[in-house]
Amino acid sequence: xxxxxxxxxxxxxxxxxxxxxxxxxxxxxxxxxxxxxxxxxxxxxxxxxxxxxxxxxxxxxxxxxxxxxxxxxxxxxxxxxxxxxxxxxxxxxxxxxxxxxxxxxxxxxxxxxxxxxxxxxxxxxxxxxxxxxxxxxxxxxxxxxxxxxxxxxxxxxxxxxxxxxxxxxxxxxxxxxxxxxxxxxxxxxxxxxxxxxxxxxxxxxxxxxxxxxxxxxxx
Length: 219
Known about the structure:
The chain is α+β, with helices and mostly antiparallel strands. It contains 3 helices and 12 strands; from the N terminus they run αββββββββββββαα. The chain has helices at residues 3-48, 185-197, 210-217, and strands at 59-63, 69-74, 80-81, 87-88, 94-100, 106-113, 119-124, 129-135, 143-148, 152-159, 162-169, 172-177.
C-alpha cells in the first residue's frame, strides 16, 4: 500500500469516527430537549393543580376565554371604565374586588376606601352606579343602602341624625319617614361646608326636609 492510499484510508477512518461522535451528540441533544419539554409540561400540570396555603400579591386578574377581564382583586384598584370609555373617578384609593361584564365594563365591587375608611358594596349598570351599601368606620356604625336611578333614588340610612327611609328625585327630597326635624351640629357643619364649596347644589335638601336644612343653613 502506497503512502497516498494509507492517507486516504486514515481520512476515511477519521470521518467514520467523527460521524459516530456527531450522531451520539445529536442523540444527547434530542434526548435533553425531550426531557426539558416533558419536565416543563409536568411542571405546568403540577402547578395548575397545586394548592397554596397563602398567596401574597398586589393584584390578581381573572380573564375569560376571550381574554376579557372579568374580575380584579387588588390593593390599589384603578378607576372605573364605563360605556363609551367614560372614566368614573373613585375619589379615593380603594382596595378590594371589582367585577366586570362580557364587554370588560365595571359592574360592581366590594371595597374599602382610604379616604373615610368606608366599606362599600356597589352594583353598577353599564353607565353609572345603581346600588350602594356603605358601612362607616366609627363606633356609631353609620350605614346606608341606596338604590339609584337616573331620575332619583330611595335610601335606607342610619346615622347620628336617626334612622329613616328617604325618597328623592332630581329636585330633592320628596318623602322621608320618620322625618328629620333638626340636623346634628356635626351634620350641620358638614353641609355648610358643602354649600360654601358648591353653592346652589342643595346637597342638604337631597337628604333632609327643607325646614331642617333652612334651620341649619339659614335662608
